[in-house]
Amino acid sequence: MAIRTPAVSPAQAGGSQRSFGSLATQVHALAQVQGQVSVEPGANLAAGVTVQADPGATVRLGSACVLQTGVTVYGRAQGRVLGDDRSPYAVWVGDRSLLTYKVLVQSPVYIGADCFIGFRSTLFNARLGAGCVVLMHALVQDVAIPAGKLVPSGAVITQQHQADALADVSPTDMALVRELAGTAFYGAPRGQHSTSGYGTTWAVSEDTTAHSTERDGLGTMTSQLLPPDVVQRARQYLAQGFTIGTEHADSRRYRSGVWQTCSPIPSQREPEVLAALETCLSQHAGEYVRMFGIEPKAKQRIAPVTIQRADGKAVAVSGGVTAAASSSNGAYRPAPASTPSGPLAPEVVQQVRQYLAQGYRIGTEHADTRRYRSNVWQTCAPIESSREGDVFGALERCLAEHSGEYVRLFGIDPRAKCRVAPLTIQRPDGKPVAVSSGSVPAPSPSYGGASYGGGTAASVSGDTAQQVRQWLSQGYHIGAEHADTRRYSSNVWQTCTPITSTHEGDVMAALGTCMAEHPGEYVRIFGIDPRAKRRMAAVTIQRPGDPTPSMPSPTPASSMPSSFNRSSGNGAAPMGGLSQDVVEQVSQLVNQGYRVSLEHADARRYRSGAWQTGSALAGSRVSDVLSALESQLRQYSGEYVRLIGTDPKVKKRVLESTIQRP
């Protein structure tokens, strides 16, 4: 309701009283109430009280609250807080709160239920939880104080870390409050009545108080759109001296990992940062938005985290900025084996620790079901830190951001600049992923082949290990392919993750990972002569239904079909459906920095020379481009397809070669 002061008459000089149900609202005739002011039943406004709301602003005075002589409450049109009823207010005064003599409240301010504000204290752009006590001559500005905290006399609370460090209200403090208030309301037994100095009777029910405490988190200072964990993360950034940046992406760009930078947030004051974040979320509603810290000295990003999803679902912001997901002793606490989601599985935690112990960095990739079948992975945000807590926090955020997709983890050797033993740690169907222990050799002074200790012996047979050792001793690289029963009958193989290492332990771990990722399929390995760029005889090491890997006689590569314009395998090529010439052409184009694309035409258009442009073959690695090329050839089966190489600097074609005919 809106209360406006009537003209004062001698009969009214003693005070006015308005009845609302069982409680009487007392507004003294000398109290000034202007604008949209909602006064709940039982509120008591003494003489000299000024409550003013600008046009467009609303001030709410709670049930059975008391404003003593000289209190000033001013609600401006700028700035809002979220009340317990989920509506915006300039000022919200909770039920049964007491504002003593000459208290000044300047919006936006949220005062929870059962709060006490002492003489001449000032509140500006602040939030007080339920049951807070502010003693005399205190200043509370730009902070959110948790419920049940004490602000001592003369305190100046303008930083959030000061508010977080406040002590709880003690029985001694409550006795002082009762003495200052001149009423037994505070600390009265639950369900009993107590009377204020103004004669208003207040009923303190246990249910009402409990409900007010539960709803306390809804009334935020200036963050109606920001969840509490996002606000907490922003405070962590600011406390460490970081500035805050944001990015946004629609659903299409999000799937491609392409983010657009929002307007920078130059300020480091918490209210301005939170307001800028709210503005960003409002401007990019229906899109993904992520926030990150920016270290001004190193000029690098810190711990990006998604704070809004395109589908509107709540986003869980886990962990902290520096020691995310850590237990009290600093060690990461993995999830139980029966937990399908949440923290990382113990096997993954152990694997990451092995990577870090050997000096490797951690990288991740993700792929949806369609890209996974084509072995096309998209790189996640890099994990710059080598601290265990930071890495685990980043991994959890990666799994949360790409839920419903495949996610795999790999080590990065910073010296050799190569990947080490990638392994899948998440599946779209939510089924647990078997991570073989010992995928990375145990730390040792040497990284030679002798460091392999049989960590994957359960998945790789001794014959396979002997064959791998033989190839490595001859200076060959190792490759692997897999095929299901249908593709196997057509001799169509798909390439596994490339094995870049020549250390026996790493190769064995990668082979074990490939076999674990493709259970129930055929898996074969082959040697690659890096000088002649040709394959050695392929050896099948896994068959569907075999309890243990088999090791049949090698199949000569020359016995396989060599035509690249059919969907058949080629024993002399590293890719299942491409000839050696095509693979070499693509490798040369990618290594020289040229862009690779396709053009296709049916028989009629081919005779007329009218080619249609196909999709660009995305990827910076040769294996990614070859995988995309195979996928495109299957898509344009029965047509002419030619390979195009383009120099991006001069925007000129450097190669046109027909690689498929109907």
| Rg from alpha-carbon coordinates | 34 Å
- What is the number of E strands? 40
- Proportion in β-strands: 25-35%
CATH class category label of the largest domain: Mainly Beta
Oligomer: single chain
Within the CATH hierarchy, at the fold level, what is the topology of the largest domain?
UDP N-Acetylglucosamine Acyltransferase, domain 1
Separation, N- and C-terminal Cα atoms = 80 Å
List segments where confidence is low: pLDDT < 50 over at least 5 consecutive residues. Answer: 4-22, 183-224, 322-342, 437-458, 548-576
Determine the fraction of residues in helical runs and give it as a percent range: 10-25%
Question: How would you sum up this structure, described in words?
Answer:
By secondary structure, the chain is an alpha/beta fold. It folds into four domains: 10-218, UDP N-Acetylglucosamine Acyltransferase, domain 1 (3 Solenoid); 228-308, Ribulose 1,5 Bisphosphate Carboxylase/Oxygenase (2-Layer Sandwich), CATH 3.30.190; 436-559, Ribulose 1,5 Bisphosphate Carboxylase/Oxygenase (2-Layer Sandwich), CATH 3.30.190.10; 580-660, Ribulose 1,5 Bisphosphate Carboxylase/Oxygenase (2-Layer Sandwich), CATH 3.30.190. Helix content is 23%, strand content 27%. The chain has 15 helices and 40 strands. Strands 3, 4, 6, 7, 9, 12, 14, 16, 18, 19 and 21 form an eleven-stranded parallel sheet that branches. It is elongated.
